[in-house]
Write a structure and sequence with these properties.
Blueprint lengths: L2 H11 L4 H20 L6 H12 L2 H9 L11 H12 L2 H15 L5 H32 L4 H10 L17 H20 L4 E4 L2 E4 L3 H5 L2 H20 L4 H25 L4 H6 L5 H35 L2
Antiparallel strand pairs: 1-2
Helix pairs in contact: 1-2, 1-4, 5-7, 6-7, 6-9, 9-11, 11-12, 12-14
Length: 319
């Protein structure tokens, strides 16, 4: 079998329970081979391609092998509905959230918690609205004869063919995850660069959250958010944790821990007045807790990226 048939079999069996994959894969390879041998043609590659087109969308074939029906919308249009919905959800909520955040800042809002809350709330509501209206549209189109031409035209645009088969090295990281990370990094950078120093009510006064030194040096944190965005771009481009992305992530996490530790112990990060107002414990203890928490999170994130890069390398090497 050629790589095209292997990719087709892989696209089918990856949607099945692990205990069924070997048996179904062997059976499907046998079926493809028999159909190819039963045909004649000047180009064996075209014969194989025609056989795969007849077998159809791997998602539908996998549902047949698994004995389940795709009835969320209807088995005939479910794969198309899923592709359209995932495509829209991959960018529409993020774009609307970014526009909302920009509009909130332009309107004069300076509280970063309010700004982020507006963005996240809008993104969630947008995702719900997109899911609802796309699902409703497909349900109506599937049952309405007058809407069938439009649905058929969309099916042609998203029609499955062997060229759409993913490589056997499937993306480890969904595009939506990388896009969301890129949007969050952009929003964080904007808030750090242009947001005011938040104030916390302490008694009858409002105390700045960060010291003047830390707030004035926030450009260093902006640089780290740019590094974060660069990592997300690498993940989006590759589809997996590559070694350059993993080591770059380790470097930016190490820089973040060093920056926070320097701010906390040398120049101060959180306002001394605010630390003194915290009940129980002295300010030095809370400084140490802050550094430890940041270090633990950064270490976990770094270790996870290195582990995933190594796992991907081993998966590729193992075929």
């Amino acid at each position: 079998m050629t790589s095209l048939s292997d990719r087709y079999v892989h696209a089918v069996v990856r949607r099945l329970p692990a205990e069924e994959r070997a048996h179904v894969g062997q059976e499907l390879r046998s079926t493809i081979g028999e159909r190819v041998r039963a045909r004649t043609g000047p180009d064996p590659g075209e014969v194989e391609r025609d056989v795969l087109v007849e077998l159809g969308d791997p998602e539908r074939l996998a549902a047949t092998y698994a004995g389940r029906e795709l009835h969320l919308i209807g088995p005939a249009v479910y794969p198309l509905w899923r592709r359209v919905l995932l495509l829209l959800l991959s960018f529409v909520p993020a774009v609307v959230a970014l526009i909302t955040i920009l509009a909130t800042v332009i309107d004069g809002e300076r509280n970063p918690f309010v700004i982020v809350g507006e963005g996240l709330g809008t993104a969630l509501m947008t995702a719900v609205q997109v899911t609802f209206w796309v699902t409703l549209g497909f349900a109506i189109a599937e049952r309405n004869e007058q809407a069938r031409p439009g649905l058929e035209g969309m099916e042609r645009g998203f029609a499955w063919n062997p060229d759409r088969l993913p490589s056997e090295a499937e993306r480890d990281i969904p595009r939506s995850e990388s896009i969301a990370g890129l949007v969050f990094a952009s929003v964080a950078g904007m808030l750090v660069a242009f947001g005011p120093n938040p104030t916390i009510p302490v008694g009858d006064e409002r105390v700045p959250l960060f010291t003047e030194t830390a707030y004035a040096g926030r450009w260093m944190l902006v640089v780290l958010t740019l590094a974060w965005a660069a990592v997300e771009v690498l993940k989006l481009y590759r589809g997996y944790w590559s070694w350059p992305a993993a080591w770059f992530n380790v470097a930016q996490n190490a820089a973040l821990v060093a920056l926070v530790a320097w701010w906390v112990y040398a120049d101060g990060l959180v306002s001394e007045r605010l630390l003194q107002a915290v009940p129980a414990g002295d300010p030095q203890l809370w400084r140490t807790i802050l550094v430890v928490v940041v270090a633990v999170i950064a270490t976990w994130d770094s270790a996870e990226s290195v582990w995933k890069a190594r796992a991907h390398e081993q998966a590729v090497a193992g075929g």
